[in-house]
UniProtKB/TrEMBL annotation, chain A:
Official protein name in the record: Sarcosine oxidase subunit delta
InterPro entries: SoxD, SoxD_sf
Protein source organism: Harenicola maris
BP GO terms, sorted: tetrahydrofolate metabolic process
MF-aspect GO terms: sarcosine oxidase activity
């Protein structure tokens, strides 16, 4: 598997580590209720098809990436820097 | 010819005018089962043995039937041998793929005492009892026999060949390659594809598993563009080799197709050489990354399942042509050909032209036009054979009558199976094409892969050349030329399954390697294992090295008929990587011994080892356990001395392995507030603070000290174990959670060497190595400053992990060894010296300082008595979840000190805590012990642990039981800090 890091270019899977759903981008605001935190930390969809995931370019530049990957084919559809996902 | 006679030692076995692939000027001697034979350079082990008249090359797996060569490729099921020097011979090597070299040593397998007289061939006589599922049905009762009787028996009988007993010292390599286009297979389609792609400007890798390019052009004879096919192939191979855009990799089998255009490929680098250069790998397992690929893997000829089809002397027709044309070997003197249509006739003509006798042409269809000069049986089937270790006679059923044909060789062909394997590696299923009676790859099976030639169902040479070119250009996204509707000899009407499965009684082999017959598959169907996947597992058909290459279509044809389904409705089993067996040693190349994981050494490693310090692993790091001195018999004596030395004079310890992260930016303070539970933006420049880091789920992640070096500049330290994880966590926090903060963090762990100088004489020592003021007024406890140390710009931190007056001195790593030596020399002058991990552990247990033994991932700030450190003034990672009611329950096991009432020997972390009178059972456990140490200062056995309601139970006597090591003691519950609770020493 290959991932194209926006900073480094196309690299082998071995350079990256996956953390899981990109839902972790949407951290609840301070003061949010516990159920909201539970959702944020623990509750995940299990999509068959395109899925946004957080990957870390640990063997490269240290960038956190949002990788859109099709879970049925493993095709990587899109890679963006996590730091540019929020406004 | 006289020279040939000398070289082979056997007259008549070589064909004088054939054998373009061997060099008759270069005889090669080798041994098989202890006997010396001669072949020629260019021979495979199989061709050389055949040329020497050797037919018997192996025994079948289950029935120990005598077997000879069936094929001339990597699909060979019978001629599997143990090859290599005694004690290091590789099992299950295919004699058809192994090139001979001087001194090659081969042994047959799966026989005892010898290949000629194999005692386990009694299994063949017992065959009626040994059908599919025999083991499942037989070895069931009594249960007590499972392990003691049945398993050893089955294990002895199971397996082919024997692995070398010692470590595998074979050198392997794990290289990587990249290209625009990977062409898999170097036959006409593959060569054509590679050349077209290279001409179009692409970087091409052409991988071919045989030793030379050409594919069937090397085997089948005939002409291409007016040249003998093998000469044409050699010309083309030379053009490709000379082309700067093409990398030709022969002896390289592509083993698997993976996501993102990644392929595995196994190259036999020196397996064909007797005198490999020292250190050269035997095999290399390549990872090839290609933007696009062309699969030109060809096709594998389909055996015909007829009774007695496994005798030595029965081989594939395509292999027969190959042995004659490429290697100049006559497999026998009287050859019967069993097949279909024009190709069977062409084979007969070649046999005739070679000067050998065609015993009969047996075709499953009408008599081919122009057949003559030998007996022809049309609309015929072979229904039996005779000959124990070599074929003698063939029984043919034709026109309702049986005919006996005297023949020592039978060449069979039930058609061709396109090699679709790689197209199935990513989950696709092939589709059945009735017109060619074969499965072909489904469209788009592997992204960016085009299929060309025989593996796509196109069998004629001209068609393969055109298809290869078209596939290459399509793969590169170029304009694709049209491909003609060529003359396809395989594309004949009315294929019937009886062309490759002969109905009737008698044992007819489908899977030669695993001894699976038509009856076994029928039995599986009768027992309702009617799914092709169930049948496969029940009968073992297509398992092991075969992977269905020879047997799959035959087996599923039988299953389809037995279950009343069509072939396409039955489907194939799943083809999985690898296409050919890959040695585990090749997959893990470089990871043997120390190669398994990198080693990290501190700058003081050399000086520490000079002092005979035993090194212990700390993650990837190596750290000194203790520094032994003369007269000390045990580690404990050294440890006690080192602890006393620190408490009474001064000790030096390398702490460089702790993670160091440099954090800068206008928002650095706010960022630290966010990642630490406690407040850091309020820290003054030149000061250090202890920080507690939580995971978002509220549990403790790590701890350490962070110094403020400037207005926007902090230096964080982490534990050794969590240095990498914390760096990743900080990157996550900065990029994912707080992308708007202006802050940067980078690991500088390896850039700095840092040493703890601890003890009452620490300040006296520092005065000798720096002019920077280190008095209490200049550098108070938890202060830090830039310093010049031995003339080098560095830093000094007044922090302590021992509870003593202590400093940590940091210099750029290149000065580390020098500084360590200097510090030791100065310390020794003050009655001190180096201390190691054992002493460090005692010092911190005395002070109740935690490590990852305590913050093991399941404890909260509340559990370790630091609940109040979670600042109410700000948000931080883990704050919300740390306030969950369950995590604030006073009944949770919480950190306490323990004073053990007697020495506990080997008692370490993991012992459980019970009430004094309670039975030591799991349900009564009230906590556990995490760290233990003998304190020379207090002459006490101290421990840290987590105890239910611990802090409320100071003074209580509890029971400590280590079930694992079988020891127990009583212990008094104390506060975690056992020594100097007021901290007077470290402020001194």
């Amino acid at each position: 598997m290959r991932i194209t890091c926006p900073l480094c270019g196309a690299r082998d899977l071995r350079e990256f580590s996956v953390t899981g759903s990109a839902a972790l981008l949407n951290r609840p605001e301070e003061g949010a209720e516990l159920p909201e935190w539970d959702d944020y930390l623990h509750n995940r969809d299990n999509p068959a098809g395109p899925s946004d995931e957080l990957w870390y370019h640990s063997g490269g530049c240290g960038a956190w990436l949002v990788v859109r990957r099709d879970t049925t084919s493993h095709a990587v559809l899109d890679v963006r820097l996590a730091s540019e996902q929020k406004t | 010819m006289s020279e040939t006679l000398r070289a082979t030692g056997k007259a008549g076995a070589r064909l004088p005018n054939m054998g373009h692939g061997i060099d008759r000027e270069r005889p090669v001697e080798f041994t098989f089962d202890g006997r010396t034979y001669a072949g020629f350079a260019g021979d495979t082990l199989a061709s050389a043995l055949m040329a020497n008249g050797v037919r018997l090359m192996g025994r079948s797996f289950k029935y120990h039937r005598p077997r000879g060569v069936l094929t001339c490729g990597s699909e060979e099921p019978n001629a599997l041998m143990q090859i290599g020097p005694k004690g290091a011979a590789e099992p299950n090597q295919r004699a058809t793929m192994q090139e001979v070299y001087p001194g090659l040593r081969a042994e047959s397998q799966n026989r005892w005492p010898s290949l000629e007289a194999d005692l386990l061939s009694v299994n063949d006589a017992l065959a009626p009892f040994l059908g599919a599922g025999f083991y499942y049905k037989t070895f069931m009762w009594p249960k007590a026999f499972w392990e003691r009787v049945y398993e050893p028996f089955i294990r002895r009988a199971a397996g082919l060949g024997a692995l070398p007993a010692g470590h595998d010292e074979t050198p392997y390599e794990k290289p990587f390659a990249h290209c625009d286009l990977l062409v898999i297979g170097g036959g006409p389609a593959g060569m054509s594809a590679a050349l077209a792609a290279a001409k179009a400007g692409a970087d091409v890798i052409l991988a071919e598993e045989q030793s030379a390019l050409g594919g069937r052009l090397l085997l089948d004879g005939g002409e291409v563009e007016g040249l003998p096919a093998h000469d044409w192939a050699a010309d083309m191979a030379a053009r490709l080799a000379a082309h700067p855009k093409v990398r030709v990799m022969t002896r390289t089998a592509v083993t698997g197709a993976y996501d993102g255009g990644v392929f595995g490929a196994l190259e036999r680098v020196t397996r064909h050489l007797g005198d490999a250069p020292k250190g050269a790998p035997a095999e290399a397992f390549w990872r090839i990354t290609a933007r696009a690929s062309v699969l030109a893997a060809g096709a594998i000829e389909r055996p015909i399942a007829f009774p007695g089809n496994d005798r030595p002397g029965i081989l594939m027709a395509g292999a027969l042509r190959g042995y004659m044309n490429r290697w100049g070997v006559a497999p026998g003197k009287s050859i019967a050909i069993y097949g279909r249509g024009a190709e069977a006739l062409a084979t007969a003509r070649q046999v005739q032209a070679a000067g050998l006798k065609v015993a009969a042409l047996i075709t499953t269809g009408p008599a081919p036009e122009g057949a003559g000069g030998f007996p022809v049986f049309a609309e015929a089937q072979v229904v039996g054979t005779r000959g124990r270790k070599s074929l003698r006679q063939v029984t043919v059923l034709s026109g309702g009558a049986k005919h006996e044909v005297i023949a020592d060789t039978l060449a069979m062909s039930g058609g061709w199976n396109p090699s679709v394997h790689l197209t199935c590696h990513m989950g696709a299923r092939p589709v059945w094409r009735a017109d060619i009676a074969g499965f072909v790859p489904a469209e788009g099976s592997v992204p960016d892969m085009q299929v060309a030639g025989a593996c796509g169902g196109r069998y004629d040479t001209q068609g393969c050349l055109e298809a290869g070119r078209a596939a290459a250009l399509a793969a590169l996204g170029r304009e694709v030329p049209s491909v003609s509707e060529g003359n396809n000899v395989h594309d004949e009407p009315e294929w019937r399954s009886t062309d490759w499965v002969v109905p009737g009684k008698g044992r007819a082999w489908l899977d030669f390697q695993n001894d699976v017959t038509v009856k076994d598959v029928q039995l599986a169907a009768r027992e309702n294992l009617s799914s092709v996947e169930h049948m496969k597992r029940y009968t073992t058909q297509g398992m092991a090295p075969d992977q269905g290459k020879n047997s799959n279509i035959g087996a599923l044809t039988v299953l389809a008929e037995a279950t009343g389904r069509s072939i396409s409705g039955t489907g194939t089993t799943t083809y999985r990587p690898p296409f050919v067996p890959v040695p585990i040693g090749a997959m893990g190349a470089g990871a043997r011994g120390k190669g398994f994981a990198p080693e990290r050494f501190t700058t003081s490693d050399g000086p520490s080892r000079e002092r005979a310090a035993p090194m212990v692993e700390a993650g990837l790091w190596y750290r000194p356990s203790y520094f032994p001195r003369a007269g000390e018999a045990t580690w404990r004596e050294a440890c006690v001395r080192e602890v006393r030395m620190v408490r009474s004079a001064v000790g030096v310890c390398d702490v460089s392995t702790l993670g160091k992260i440099d954090i800068q930016g206008p928002d650095a303070g706010a960022f630290l507030d966010f990642v630490y539970a406690n407040l850091f933006s309020s820290l003054k420049e030149g000061r250090v603070r202890y920080g507690l880091m939580l995971r978002e789920d509220g549990h403790v992640m790590d701890d350490g000290t962070t110094a403020r070096l400037g207005p926007n500049h902090y230096l964080m330290t982490t534990t050794t174990a969590a240095a990498g994880a914390v760096m990743k966590h900080l990157d996550f926090a900065a990029q994912v959670l707080q992308p708007n903060m202006d802050v940067s963090a980078i690991s500088v762990t390896e850039q700095w060497a840092q040493f703890a100088v601890a003890g009452p004489e620490a300040r006296a020592l520092l005065r000798t190595i720096t002019d920077t003021p280190v008095e209490d007024a200049d550098l108070p406890y938890m202060g830090c400053c830039d310093a010049v140390i031995g003339g080098v710009a560095g830093r000094i931190f007044r922090i302590s992990f021992s509870g003593e007056l202590a400093y940590e001195v940091a210099v750029p790593a290149r000065y580390g060894a020098s500084l360590f030596r200097l510090l030791l020399a100065q310390a020794e002058g003050l009655g001190g010296g180096a201390y190691g991990m054992e002493a460090l552990n005692v010092l911190r247990v005395e002070k109740g300082f935690i490590t990852h033994a305590e913050i093991h991932g399941r404890v909260t700030a509340y559990d370790i008595g630091m609940g109040r450190m979670v600042s109410a003034k700000k948000d931080c990672i883990g704050k919300a979840m740390s306030q969950r009611p369950g995590l604030l329950d006073p009944a949770r096991p919480r950190l306490v000190g323990l004073r053990l009432s007697e020495p506990m020997g080997k008692m370490l972390g993991g012992a459980h805590l019970f009430e004094a009178g309670a039975e030591a059972r799991r349900v009564n456990s009230q906590g556990y012990l995490t760290s233990q140490a003998y304190s020379p200062e207090l002459d006490a056995h101290l421990a840290l642990g987590f105890l239910t309601r611990g802090p409320e139970r100071i003074g209580e006597v509890i029971r400590v039981v280590d079930h694992m090591r079988g020891v127990e003691t009583m212990a008094e519950v104390t506060a975690p800090v056992a020594l100097d609770p007021e901290g007077e020493r470290l402020r001194g």
